[in-house]
Design brief:
Elements (H helix, E strand, L loop, with lengths): L11 H52 L13 H5 L6 H6 L12 H4 L24 E6 L30 E5 L16 E4 L13 H6 L3 E2 L15 E3 L11 E3 L4 E2 L8 E6 L4 E5 L4 H8 L11
Parallel strand pairs: 1-5, 3-6
Antiparallel strand pairs: 1-2, 2-8, 3-4, 6-7, 8-9
């Protein structure tokens, strides 16, 4: 009978070396995996904006004009675009004769529409509403009413009215959703909410002292795609990208806003249907130039 010699086992030192090698390999792979995930998320977000742009053109073809950023019942332009992003069943369930936050619209209000939320967004500030990472651009003025962009209060802009050029004018952009907190933690996620009457006296420093004192703080930015009021699904460009001053909402009628992201730029949907990633280093004057529909500015986004 032949004897088989016992197989040599790994010593403690060899096991430690092996574990160290595996840890090094994992450490090398994780950044690459993260980059792939980030790239995929950015592409998906750009695809969402592309769908919104196509929907705007389809709406224009069907109605002869673009939808208002917010109508007299506070419904958003996104609500009007539902039939053009394969959500016609949702649109038919809306009671457009009642306010967007009426109890009869509560069921639809709570639905999350994937086209309106970035895959990079972890926050859901209102459990009773579907959030949006994308904001229709009203222009560069504080009031939503009679603004100089495309989507403002009761706007019904035609493509012919965008004389700055479709490729040089923003339809919408990606920005942070609020975290639901009512504590002044970061201007990237919270803003200052004032009364509608405060809009007539709004100034550059409006909201700064409130945020420092932790007063009138709201964290529901972008909390409802169905809602077209200020900082819900519409915004104007009055602050620098990532401005240290807080955004301000005056009763949904307007205020101050800047683009807020956790990256060095943001995805932007242009009026010609194209989507671009624009760096956060772009100056406010350029952002405002592409936020207007007929300002006559000559801009180089790059």
């Amino acid at each position: 009978m032949s004897r088989t010699s016992p197989r040599p086992g790994y010593g403690l030192f060899q096991l430690l070396v092996l574990i160290a090698l595996i840890a090094i390999l994992i450490g090398m792979l994780l950044p690459a995996v993260q980059k792939v995930r980030e790239s995929a998320a950015r592409m998906q977000s750009q695809n969402n904006l592309k769908q919104i742009g196509i929907a705007c053109h389809s709406y224009m073809d069907a109605n002869g004009q673009l939808p208002p950023g917010v109508d007299d019942k506070s419904f958003s332009g996104f609500a009007q675009l539902l039939p053009y992003i394969e959500q016609d069943n949702l649109y038919k369930k809306l009671d457009l004769a009642k306010n967007c936050d009426d109890k009869d619209n509560a069921e639809i209000r709570a639905i999350m529409v994937k086209t309106f939320i970035s895959p990079r967004e972890p926050h859901h500030p209102d459990p009773k509403a579907g959030p949006t990472s994308y904001f229709l651009v009203a222009g560069t003025k504080s009031p939503l009413e009679d603004n100089d962009g495309i989507f403002y209060k009761d706007s019904r802009v035609t493509l012919n009215a965008i004389t700055d050029g479709l490729s040089n004018t923003m339809l919408c952009l990606e920005s942070n959703v609020g975290d639901g907190s009512k504590k002044a933690t970061t201007v990237a996620r919270q803003f200052v909410r004032l009364k509608k009457g405060d809009l007539k006296n709004i100034a550059d420093k409006t909201g700064v002292k409130d945020f420092e004192d932790g007063k009138n703080i709201a964290g529901n930015r972008g909390s409802a795609w169905i809602d077209g009021r200020y900082l819900q699904s519409t915004m104007s460009i009055t602050r620098e990208f990532g401005d240290k001053r807080p955004d301000v909402d005056c009763g949904g009628a307007g205020g101050h806003a800047g683009i807020r992201t956790d990256t060095r730029g943001t995805n932007v949907g242009m009026a010609d249907g194209s989507v671009r990633f624009i760096s956060s280093s772009v100056k406010l004057s350029v952002w405002q130039a592409i936020a207007t529909r007929a300002g006559g500015e000559v801009v180089n986004i790059d």
